[in-house]
Amino acid sequence: MGGNYSVAIDLGGTIIKIGLILDSEIVRFTTISSDSVKGLSHMLPKMEHAIDSLLSEEGISSTDLVSIGLAFPGMVNPVECRVISTNDKYDDACDIDLCHWADSRWGVPFVLENDARLAVIGEWLYGAAKGTGNVVMMTIGTGIGTGVILDSKPLVGHHHQAGSLGGHMVVDYRGRRCSCGNIGCVEAMASSFFLPDIIRSNERVSPDFKIAASDMDFKQLFGLMRQGDENAIIICEECMNVWAAAIVSYIHAYDPEVVVLGGGIMRSADIILPYINKWVEDRAWTPIDRVHIVLSELGDNAALLGLNYYLTSVKRRRNEKVFKL
Q1: Which Gene3D superfamilies has this protein been placed in (predicted)?
Q2: pLDDT of the chain along its 325 residues, tens only?
Q3: Which of these, 5, 110, 121, 282, has the minimum number of CB atoms within 10 Å of its CB?
């Protein structure tokens, strides 16, 4: 079985998703567990084995593979195909020549991009924002990631970070110190990574709840909120207020037609979406038209399919060993 196949890799902190793509569809998919603290070099052999297994399962050889792309959870220079900042995930990645890795292992060109930017590209081309030209996507999970489509183009910027740092916009300049070094970032005030401290430092919740909820995640908290637990309601609403305030800032900054929300926390979308839509409707300065806040349609596959935006171009230039964005 022949064809122009590409491999897309979404490098998460604990799970790495790998998809085999043909004609804009994921035809094979696998996941492998990871520990980002151990570094990217530790995971490359496991990724190689997973990719080769996908090719074998599809009944194709490596000669049918035309490109490989990686969605990285940090700042990258896609033109030079290198990681430039990691923020405590895969910290050795800045020193790894990934183009050489792909070329020496499979003889194919390599594409590298920020994972949140790729997620918004995926939703724009294939998902919840299809048919629009101006989109912001906010991914709420361990951290807060954002990506922006502006006038039907991914927003990149001079330092390749435009639109990607929405999780590090300040919502409380007196707030909690963030992992990025700033104070009061969206991520520091309302993400899973900081949730234990968010609960512990809240003066409105009871001491007993702080003890009982010390190891809880957002899924459990929103479950308690559904049951009417007053302490859980306080925590969840304060986090939703932070997310909504950030979205108002994104709307004022980027003027999108739609804001897409993704990430594991959106499994509680039945509570979160109506709450944020109401907040934004009341507070965003949008006199001409209302900005719709919608749920991701692609879920965990958004970044993988977003890579196809670049991988498709590689297929048209498959004789080149290094692809320049």
Answers
A1: 3.30.420.40
A2: 557 899 999 998 889 999 999 988 999 999 999 988 899 999 999 999 999 999 999 999 888 899 999 999 999 999 999 999 987 789 999 999 999 999 999 999 999 999 999 999 999 999 999 999 999 999 998 889 999 999 999 999 999 999 999 999 999 999 999 988 999 999 999 999 999 999 999 999 999 999 999 999 999 999 999 999 999 999 999 999 999 999 999 999 999 999 999 999 999 999 999 999 999 999 999 998 899 999 999 998 999 999 998 887 765 555 444 444 4
A3: 282
Backbone angles phi, psi at 176, to 5 degrees: -80, 145
**DSSP letters along 70-133, please?**
EEESSEEETTTTEEEE-SSSSGGGGG--HHHHHHHHHS--EEEEEHHHHHHHHHHHHSTTTT-S
| Alpha helix ranges (H) inside the chain | 40-58, 98-106, 115-126, 186-189, 195-201, 207-212, 218-226, 230-254, 269-283, 302-316
d(CA 14, CA 5): 26
Q: Which residue has the tokens 């990149």?
A: 156
Rounded-to-integer distance, Cα 317 and Cα 221, Å = 49
Q: Report residue 212 CA to chain centroid gap.
A: 30
Domain boundaries, the chain: 5-114+301-316, 128-296
- Tell which CATH architecture fits domain 5-114+301-316: 2-Layer Sandwich (3.30)
Q: Which residues pair with 67 in a beta bridge?
A: 6
In eight-state DSSP terms, residue 311 is: H
Give the class (CATH, top level) of 128-296: alpha beta
Measure the CA dihedral 125/126/132/137, to 10°: -90
The span from the first CA to the last CA of the chain, in angstroms, equals 30
Beta bridge partners of 114: 72
Contact (Cβ atoms closer than 8 angstroms) between residue 48 and residue 98:
no
From the CB of residue 279, how many other CB atoms can be counted at a distance below 10 Å?
Answer: 18
**Under 8 Å between Cβ of 133 and 103:** no
